[in-house]
Amino acid sequence: xxxxxxxxxxxxxxxxxxxxxxxxxxxxxxxxxxxxxxxxxxxxxxxxxxxxxxxxxxxxxxxxxxxxxxxxxxxxxxxxxxxxxxxxxxxxxxxxxxxxxxxxxxxxxxxxxxxxxxxxxxxxxxxxxxxxxxxxxxxxxxxxxxxxxxxxxxxxxxxxxxxxxxxxxxxxxxxxxxxxxxxxxxxxxxxxxxxxxxxxxxxxxxxxxxxxxxxxxx
Length: 218
Known about the structure:
single chain, 73% helix, Glycerol uptake facilitator protein
């Protein structure tokens, strides 16, 4: 007997929440403790969480990736909305826990403005697109129905992007991470909306690019 639709959806949302919690908690704690290994930590935890939960939810843990999957027609709008709620709520909770665990004496919030904000928006657009594009191609393409490297490819995309442009934008590529870092005090709330818009637009563009380059993959 197959599970009821609500049970299947609940499992997906729970997996998305768990994976996002560990991703955002890792990023927030690394940032609050000023670890130089934050890019590696973020890429590694994303990789293992994708391997852990990808068979249930697809292992998005990122509203921009969910946007890409929606445009690519891998999921429907109802599931996408559920994923977004789970991811953003999990990101906020993880950030609160991270801040409580570290309990820093002071936190310097990233607050780009002017040219720096424009540069941050551009690099976030580029690498969020790269991340979503990689996810769609290694984890949703019918030409690669079974592979063992998808989590590694996705995790290394995040690590490479964070090393490359972390000093410009913070290297988030993920609205849940952006919200989490703001909640933890690592990022200024005033410019958060720009990051969220840019990242979701990048996800949509990645979905459109996948459809254009893979017209027979429906």
